[in-house]
Amino acid sequence: MSSTNGNKIERDEYPTPIPTVEALLSKLTLKHNDTFLEPCRGSRNIFDRIDLPEEQKFWAEINEGVDYLNTSFSQKDVIITNPPFSLTIEFLRKSLSELAPNGTLAYLQRVNFLGSKCRVDFWAEIGFPNKTPVIIPRPRFVNGGSDSCEYMWMIWDKGNRFEIERGISHLISK
Ligand SMILES: C[S@@+](CC[C@H](N)C(=O)[O-])C[C@H]1O[C@@H](n2cnc3c(N)ncnc32)[C@H](O)[C@@H]1O
Predict the structure, then answer these.
(1) How far apart are CA 132 and CA 151, in angstroms?
(2) Which of 43, 49, 68, 164 has its CA 20 to 30 A from that of 19?
C-alpha cells in the first residue's frame, strides 16, 4: 500500500476497497441505539455503509477540516476505520479511550503491525485485539501499486457485535 513499494500518498489517502468493507460489515450486528464513529472517513467507504440513523453517526476527516487527533468525541459504541498507517498508534490510543465499556472497535492494518520490537511496549500497554481476521484475498488499494503484505481487521469486540471467531481467523471477501 505505501512504504512497501516506496510510493507514498500524502496523508495516507487509500480508501478501503469496498469488498473489504462489506466482508467486515456482513459480520456486524449493530444495536438500534448504537453510536458510531469513523475517525478519518475519507471517501466514506465505511461511513456510508453503517446502517444507523445519521444522528447516531459521527466522523472526522482532516481533508474536511476535522483533525481526529485534535478533536474530542464523547464515548462511542462502535468505531471502525482504516487509519493513516503512519498515525495508527496515536489513532488507536485515542479510539480506545473513546470507546464505551461494551464497545466494539475495528481497525484495518497490516498483519505485521502485531510484531516489531518498537511496538512491544505499546501492545503490552493496550492489549491485543481479541479478533484478528486476516482478509482473503489480500485487498488491493487504489494507487497503492503492488503490495505483498497481508492485511487484517484488528477488532476489540467488548460488545460482541462481530460474528467472527476469537483469535486469528480468515475473512473471505468477494
Ligand atoms: C487510509 S485512508 C482511509 C479512509 C477511510 N477511513 C476508508 O476506510 O476508506 C486514511 C484517511 O485518513 C485521513 N487523515 C489523515 N490524518 C488525519 C487526521 N489527523 N485526522 C483525520 N483524518 C486524517 C486522510 O485524509 C485519509 O482520508
Answers:
(1) 10
(2) 68
- DSSP assignment letter at 168: E
- Peptide bond between residue 137 and the one before it cis (omega within 30 degrees of 0): yes
Output the nine-digit C-alpha cell for 170: 480468515
User: What does the block give as the cell for 91?
Assistant: 489513532
Nearest to 71 by CA among 106, 100, 39, 44: 39
Is 5 a residue whose pLDDT tops 90?
no
- Whole-prediction pTM value? 0.94
- Identify the residues whose C-beta falls under 6 Å from ligand 1: 11-16, 40-43, 45-46, 60-63, 67-69, 81-82, 84, 87
Query: Ligand 1: distance of its center to the CA of 85 in Å?
Result: 9
Atom 15 of ligand 1, residue of closest alpha carbon: 11
Amino acid occupying residue 170:
H
Q: Structural domain tally of the chain? A: 1
Please state the length of the chain.
174
Query: Looking at residue 115, what is its pLDDT?
Result: 96
DSSP 17: P
Are the CB atoms for 100 and 118 separated by under 8 Å? no
* Owning domain of residue 144: 3-172
Ligand 1: which of 21, 48, 61, 82 to mutate, most ligand atoms within 8 Å of CB?
61
CATH of the domain at 29: 3.40.50.150
